[in-house]
## 1
Amino acid sequence: MEETDLVILWGSNAREAHPIFFHHVLKAIHRGARLYAVDPRKTTSAQWAVPGTGHLPLYVGTDIPLANAIAREILAAGLENRSFIENATSGFEEYRRSVEPWTLERAELITGVPAEQIRELAHAYARADRAVLCWTLGITEHHNAVDNVRALINLSLLTGHVGRYGSGVCPLRGQNNVQGGGDMGALPDRLPGFQHVENDALRAKFERVWGVAIPPKGGWHLSGMFEAMEHGEMTALYVIGENPANSEADQHRTVRLLSGLETLVVQDMLLTATAELADVVLPAAAGWCESEGTVTNSERRVQRVRQALPPPPGVRDDVEILCDLARRMGHDLGNPTAEELWNELRALSPAHAGMSWTRLEAEDGLQWPCYDESHPGELYLHGRLWARPVIGPRAPFKAVEHDPPVDELTDEFPIRLTTGRHLDSYNTGVQTGLFASPMRKGGTVDLHPEDGWRLGVAEGDRVRVTSRRGSVVAPVRFDSGLRPGLAFMTLHYPDQVATNELTIDAVDPGSGTSEFKATAVRIEPVENAQLAGKQETHGSALHRPRA
Amino acid sequence: MTFQDAPDAKIPVPRGPVPVVPPPRPRRAVELTIDGQSVAVPEGATLLEAARQIGIDTPTLCFLENLTPVNVCRICVVEVEGSRTLVPACSRKAEPGMVVHTDSERVRLSRRMVLELLGSSVDLSTAPQIAGYMERYDAHPERFGPPAPPARDHERDLARPGHHPAPHNGQTATGGQPVKVDNELYVRDYSKCILCYKCVEACGTDAQNTFAIALAGRGFEARISTEYDVPLPDSACVYCGNCIGVCPTGALMFKSEFDLRQAEAWDESRQTATDTICPYCGVGCTLTVHVQDEKIVKVTSPIDHDVTNGHLCIKGRFGWEFVNRRE
């Protein structure tokens, strides 16, 4: 990252959500690299972008038109990487045809980003020797998340900015082990080591070692589970270290479904809102400092987690709880240590085979894939695309089309509400709510000052925010980094402002992620006397058809 | 098996070539003599690096591997033959044929004087590293007499940057004064500040790029200050605590440590330090968790860790309170 020439942060406020990663971006900037930030908000990250033109403030949910227009401009200017496309990709012709209609002018109309800025980014990205394209939840918390990601991957294939030192695509992971969880098989269709459960040979390998039959079909992802609860197909749920009662979109529905379960077991280190709904709560150790194991970060680096202190009395390690539960159910899994579990994984996952416990200790973590003990781990992926002829399958372009957010803006719900993180808080605030941050802003609804003026409210005044699903009251904060018609809230303070009562559970069919980033709302001032939950306060609702 | 078509998610992608980091530009070797020993270092290396390469321990206060050298403390000075003045080893580049003395009488005298002047004007009680240097160079700051009485609260902050009022009883702005406690995360005790600039650098372009603090005033009035000396919560500070991480004297201190010290309960001999990974975002910062009596008392990060270079954000640095608060 530090040695790249151009960084695009697309739907990512890394300065606040991934601060230490952003230190590396800053080092690149101080070295002379240029930063472009594609974000509806002028965030603290966007403030470091190329002055004047480096922040592309697109309308929420118009990422695909923007990406396609960048692609069209690169092609129109003849800046695509021909030899890479011919040697290493497939589906280019179809892709080229699909982006053809996305002229700069049309894209400006749809995305709100001036044509000249789109042109500048297209030329800068295509001409850079090395370029990294990063994204976060601004891309993935949409009903068409997978298509959004595809649109960005297309750009990297078009320019050859992938699989080289200093060039690549980089999804910034939001949690310390969200990468590791997936790697270890906490995905509906994968076994540990990212091995597909529907591949008979791979599944058989696991069945031999585990001595059990594994269902040969992928299961449900989180959103699929809620669907299944709705239809009565799922009646019991075992939640480990997750707080869906606060974190899921459309909270009224979530809580109704969780409450309707026959059995809800929650294993967590704190009594979360979900745990309060549970039939059984299993108090678990704080994995990061009270137990031994590994986590895997955004750069695929497997890192050792170590016990710094014992858990409080009566609180047990996750693995211990699971093994005990298995014993009660008639399966003796023994009392494996973290290292023994790791060695089982190494035996089953080729990508982890070379990562001995000793190496993980000695080398301060290793990046998968690491196939044997002499393999150094891989700093970047997809280098095979530069081999001639290409090793393995070609990387496919995938034509994707614009599909606006599901929650439509109308006269009744004219404001686009988007969500994000604050620097000093994390997700539903279960952990971060307990330290005394002097910066804590609390649950607010952030508006452009012009919208405040339209509503006749000052900072700190309380307003009612209403979507098609719910309604909350929150104090106003002004942020001139927003545009008129765009509001911003976080999920950090569910006890003060239950933002997820507003959000929509329009789910991407591929990833199962809800469209947290695009809710249609109306905002009305609230008199103090009306605070006690009066719903009917129609007044000066804002009129802004697009944001 | 051929792979001409789009990849099938069910089939693992084959192994490719192992990625390689482009080798750094080769640097010429520079040969020089330090304390009679011949040593070769790459062009651009400092005298400090050259000395360390042959196992010579040079004292440093304002130098840190993850910061740009500002060579203000003068404790690392060495003698270079042919040079009129002593030179700071932390920033002076090695040159071919240089003859360097790191432990000559002139060097020892200079280091002793620096330590005595610091010790006579600053409270070094929470800087054990400096105490070691005092012993090594036989420094006796007490020969400059007892410290002057401490200033009243904020008296030191009255002088505005750019103004040059008469010194307070001949005392520096970093002399005795009350501790600034204006938030729950960390305290600033400028009576312990040796003006090494490390905190300014960590807050600036060397790490955090927040620029909440800078040097204000000149001469006797020089001090580290927020803009207009506002309390931290009104400043640009984002509470990454990276200034504390680099502070060599304990002038900047975690509130958790400060409170325990006030209660006379801080005991490093009862503490353990364990490296683990931050529980928050996906960057994977190594946290060194300091535990005393089964409670976390502070969090730091190793300076040689690739991900953090010793620097953290507010969540990693302070977001552990929930572990202590569980019943």
Note: Chain B has two domains: 28-146, 174-325.
## 2
Amino acid sequence: MSGYSVTEPSRGQKWIAGILVAGYALITILPLVWIIATGFKSSADSIAYPPKLLFQPTLEGYVNLFTTQTRQTTEYLNANPPQTWYERIVHDRGLVIAGPSRFGERFMNSVIIGFGSTFLSVFLGTLAAYAFSRFKVPLKDDLLFFVLSTRMMPPIAVAIPIFLMFRSLGLSDTHAGMILLYTAVNLSLAVWLLKGFIDEIPVEYEEAALIDGYTRFQAFYKVVLPQAATGIASTAIFCLIFAWNEYAFAVLLTSGTAQTAPPFIPTIIGVGGQDWPAVAAGATIFLLPVMVFTILLRKHLLRGITFGAVRK
Amino acid sequence: MADSMIERAAMSTPPGTARRIRGLSDRTIAWIFVSPTIFLLLAVNIFPLIWTIRLSFTNFRANRPNAEVAWVGLRNYERILTDSDIWQTMQATAHFLFWTLFFQVLIGFTLAWLINRKFKGNDLWTTIIVLPMMLSPAVVGNFWTFLYQPQIGLFNYGIAFLTGADPTSFSMIGDVALAPWAIIIVDTWMWTPFVTLICLAGLRSIPDSIYEAAECDRASNWRQFWTITIPMTLPFLMLAVLFRGIENFKMFDLVVQLTGGGPGNTTTLTSIDLKREAFEKWRTGYSSAYAIILFVTVFGLASIYVKALNKVKER
């Protein structure tokens, strides 16, 4: 009976569990696979019945996503043969490219606001988390709870006064306004997560550094920061994902210059109704980075989504 | 003069302490580090909250900033609490909350229990399962309207394939009876992995020795499950319910993209209703009172729940 353990599931059990979990996983990623696949379908294939599993892939959806088009007469089309591959795709349907669409701009807004607010919230969050972790801050528990409680407000409820505040400060529909807002929303997550990570670094390292003649500040950035690097990186990714996905504030407080991609993608319409391949193409470009980050983050995922309450 | 005294004091003390005297004191550093965060949170959270409370006693309308604002006392609160439409949205929210929590706990725990059978490749499958919850609810919700199309949607096709029904005979987001379930299905699809991950952490925290002891006492598997597995994962499960409960009470983006609150008012959750009052009808004072009522509800329910959670943890 060597090596027998009562807590180790039997082989049969493992097989059944494995098959059930794999089955669930396959069903659950089907909608995501469908988004990616639809992006490479022609409009006709995307709305075919029964739904097409095998199809001739085309970049039509991506071309529609990045350009605006106008219909032209046959004479005009014949007189102006397409120069590039993307012009040819549009040309085949009796259209010519009129110019770039707004998608690129909106995507860049998402990048600017996402990275801007992530940098700020991680910067401020690291400082606050270090202080909460190492010093006697008066009313520490109350302040920490206050930081967390700011997440309980429904965004729409906060949006009313913020809308008024932004209007009177001239921050409506600006990058600065959105960066500030997302920083404030993300700060609670950043402080709580980073405090957990910094708590895990032994105080002895800093004490040794202080005895060696470092100032408190030097000890902070030469000893603590390098130790907390992984924690800071994963906190940053969580903040980035939140800002990237945020919709409620974006749809209420931005309309043009600072509008991010989530409120924009659902409004993509082609000639005659919603252009699903273009929507799917936009969704693919927008969702893929997050999927990659999720896979990179999988070890710290649990910690991030529970504000550090559960650590593996 | 004062500087030189500090220098002299520093020179006569051991070097470590000397540097500390020259550098900023810990207390000063603590304040420098904490105050920007507190200031920003005050400016973007607490100040607006106080402003909302003030507005909630007025008839202010944000689309008419120059109109005269009258103080109306508690009338906004009175009107909200006696409005039957608002009770209907509360019911829709309660229905959504109850069933999403029910399915997510049931499926989420089952999945975690299965993954904890430690079969080969469980890490890979877990990573795949987790993907939906990290994605933008608005973008994904919008795409689900495509999957729910009666004629061409993949969801209707799948259901028709399994049950033999005509895929055009039902519309998940157009039918009054089905729409509340349409949003529950998508939310469950998205957030079940959240519960799974937390439960998995709970299951993995149970030491093997407890099961070994139970085995020595000849406790059946069934009995072990109910007397060891469930009680020991309960605090984790309750934590997952707390997070999901708060998030789904605030639910806006996913449902607004999926159904827009329709058909009729069947999927008008409180956040969607609030958005209409505040940003479409522009009844700012009224909707401020509405927002305060929602906040007090969430905060109250969460505090009671956290007390219960702490009791379970202490056991």
Note: The two ends of chain B are 62 Å apart (CA to CA).
## 3
Amino acid sequence: MESQNVIQVQSLTKKFGDFTAVDAISFEVKKGEIFGFLGANGAGKTTAMKMLIGISMPTSGEAIVAGFDVYKNRDNIKRNIGYMSQKFALYDDLTVKENITFFGGIYGLKKNQIKEKTTQLINDLALQEVANKLVGSLPLGWKQKIAFSVALLHNPKIVFLDEPTGGVDPITRRQFWEMIYQTANTGTTIFVTTHYMDEAEYCNRVSIMVNGKIEALDTPKKLKEKYNATNMNDVFLKLARSPSLTLPKGNGTHTEN
Amino acid sequence: MKRFIGFIKKEFYHIIRDKRSLFILLGMPIVQIILFGFAITNEINNVDIAILDHSKDVTTQEIINKIASSKYFSIKEYIANETEIERSFKKGKIKAVLIFEKDFSKKLTKENNASIQIITDASDPNTANTISNYINSILRNYQQQINKNIHLAYQINPNTKMIFNPELKSVFMFVPGVMTIILMLVSAMMTSISISREKEFGTMEVLLVSPLKPFQVIIGKVVPYILLSIFNATVIVLLSILVFEMPIEGSLLFLVAENILFIITSLSLGILISTVSENQQKAMMISLVTLMLPTIILSGFIFPISSMPWILQAITNIIPAKWFVIILKGIMLKGVGISYLWKETLILIGMTLFFIMLSIKKYKIRLE
């Protein structure tokens, strides 16, 4: 079972002075899983994610990402993960092709690999018409899909998506989740933060962070049963409103397997 | 290395596709040097004047020839009577009219006394003043020439000699200043803007998650601006040599070395500014207020430091541009080398190290 876990986190903590942003969280994510990382703004999910992707040092605790330690092996982690920020950060003044070439380049892809990937990506997303247009001129939904594909260029083991659907219309969101499913089917693990509760239903498992702690972690179905809720939104509201009353901590911070 | 080239290529796409920054980067040096060289100047050159000669004799002709042969004046027209003076001025081109009285030569030799009237257009008071000074000195010069054989009992001969810029060309004073401003603008301001742009658009985060190390990202960002700065410094030096005939007295190699030092100083300032600004606007404002204004006002390039109040004089010491202007003037105008400029050079090196250390510290805090 252990080898199946691509992310393994034990009592991971981040303090900024007196303030504890992430308070001893523990969880595992399995290979090929779509793992939803939920929480209100300020709950600490971005801070937790930054520790996992190697741009923030934990104060204490353990974390192994893609087989590498977040303290000692951040370079190896970075080579094995993809990341897409909530801003779909591509360069607006570069064309679609130039963006792909640039990001492929910084991940050390070879010239012919980049060429191959570019053709494949443009065909998959049906971007033939706009391949040589500046990214800035494209609609948000397209940028989102391109940004996601760019994050996958180097075949990472895990992709971290930070609120990947912010500001995008429902149909595009739907299409985007189809892309996520396809990617997960190829064995890539998806670690996604979101504040759209309907999206939480699409995830295999969901964790909910409140005030720096993980208060619940399970499949959406089981969470709904446990909290006697009809949808994830209700679950979230129940947890966020009275975090300490809802359930004993031991249950919430660990998964059942 | 391949990654690095890709990074620089991308950086050049940014620069080329942003017409505004492209203009600042490539047009600014030329515009500034031309502006300071031709437009903002205290000298006069080929000023059009008119002559009203009532005597038309040998002496007046000699004086007129002397004036016409100086490069400061060109004689545009000869007018016949007083009524034409005003008409001449009103047409706009004539800046001064010279009037010789009747029987000039005769009066000069018989009565030892003859008069010339100089009328200048004082709608531009500085120029009018300069014109009349120049004409006066030409006349004095002529007088000495004709008095050569007569020995006066008491005579004081002031012998003024201007060194390092004997022709008092103001462009020579401006070149070091313009160079300093441009290098500051390109290296410090444009770098800080371009780095904070990555932060603003969220691409910095993506770069930091990539296998690139933070210092590689920063190096990749600044190298294009180092190249542009060197290019700009070259353009300025070439323009001042070819267009303004400015002599470079000192060693060209030393000049290049000092330029590179100052480029690095400015870059470290630019990086420092980018660590505290999360968007382009802020980076630009901080650069303008903390770098450009002090560079223009307190570097001694426009306003002499020695005539500032002591408190401002003290402040000028912490402005890197002040030391660089001293160095540039030393090399370009005085032709001195490191043996005279080691103190200023050391100060610049010290400042650079301090800024680099400070930015590394700030940058680390941001990452943790």
Note: Chain A has one domain: 31-43+74-247.
## 4
Amino acid sequence: MTKPLSDSVKSLKPSGIRKFFDIVSEMKDAISLGVGEPDFDTPWHIRDEGIFALEKGKTFYTSNAGLKELREEICSYVSRTQRVNYDPMHEVIVTVGGSEAIDIGLRAMCNPGDEVIIPQPSYVSYEPCAVLAGAKPVIIDLKAENEFRLTPEELEAAITDKTKVLILPFPNNPTGAIMEKGDLEKIAKIIIDNDIYVMSDEIYAELTYKGEHVSIVSLPEMKERTVLINGFSKAYAMTGWRLGYACGPEEIIKQMTKIHQFAIMCAPTTSQYAAVEALKNGDEDVKMMRQAYNQRRRFLMNAFREMNLDCFEPYGAFYVFPCIKEFGMTSEEFATRFLEEEKVAAVPGTAFGNSGEGFLRISYAYSLDNLKIAMERLNRFVERLRRE
Amino acid sequence: MRDELLSIIEKNSRIGVNELAVLLGKEEIEVANEIAKLEAEGVICGYHTLINWDKTSIEKVTALIEVKVTPQRGQGFDKIAERIYNYPEVRAVYLISGGYDLLVTLEEKTLKEIAGFVSDKLSTLDSVLSTATHFVLKKYKDHGTVFDKKKEDEREVITP
């Protein structure tokens, strides 16, 4: 064939993580701190419900938007955590992971030439999904001195008359940053004044270690302009089940459902039955996992303090984002040498945007024993670099 | 802090006070005081080790014995329970709802010793009406820990 493939797809850069992945996979005894998914197994009662659904022969498509029972449980969850009521029949769609919701949400909202504001460092798929939706990504470089929160000044500076959507990725991967109610209130005002949409990716909502997570949809006048994205992967350790959802205004969900209907049909049926059980009876599991993550988070922060490594204290997700600027290397150089010399893999901050330069993402979705060995090695590495 | 502390040391009683303090985000002295209090109150009753004896050369036979008894006036089941749990070979005694009254677990070197205990000591107690002895053939899981299962990390090594 000589005819060229899609220009917009070809223009996408492959994920910066790939290169590391290949090196680490070759190394036998390397410890990885590079994983973006829980180390826990899906709680047994949830898995059991999936098995039971299969045994009963629940192997057909569900409705496009997802099982009614699941949509009702999702609404009741959002209602009890955020005191915001969604109509399960018209304002919710069950998707294949939060990632599908990001994709179809942007496609449903954007016209060619629209601008999508993406604060970075953040998850790798916002920018390519915006490009594929025909929109122009406008990047905000978040700053360590603001604990990687989005400030009103930064947002205002990024808004133009073409701005359509703001992506709000908190609790944040890779920084672990959160936005508290006060922070959200300040930016909500700007959003309303400029009449833009918000896509709030709250996949790590349950993993918040400072008070309760507050969603921007709970603020006045925000529900009508926000697509709230969440899912089961992080809270219930269900990554492989591929299940997420979006809640939003009926007009948007209706358009999203069309894309979903033609591209996907429906989210996996087994996963949907398991997810009903997760929302009904999974609170204790979430609490147990959150507690374990929080202990590890404290352990890592203490380890950084002891080795004098600069790191703001993150209160969300399962990542810490230490600063490695003092060593005069790029993130990639640091991560490569750390891997080669100490056999520990951590992801360079630049994999999540240019503003990640000078930082390293360390995941604590690992057992404490694992983290202890990794921190011993990091300490040794850091000491050696300081002597050089 | 109490609940979280207990849930940590229930799984790992060897953890040091300094490490506990880090995990809980508290001062060492607070943690040490809390542990002392829990010990004094009898909440923490001991620091044991979970051993899979099947992996050693030491023979151990475990039996679960259902015991039906007549409760004694003024003492209920406590008196007879005490007579049973005072035997050092008795590992645990529980008062149970359902078809029988007491569940006694016993650990001995041989089957014969267990048979001896049941026939000579347990059955001959005045208030014991009947017993049913079940021998443990294999322990899969004990104290929340699955024996003989080392889980490999099957996740992709790096994911976004």
Note: Chain B has a mean pLDDT of 93.
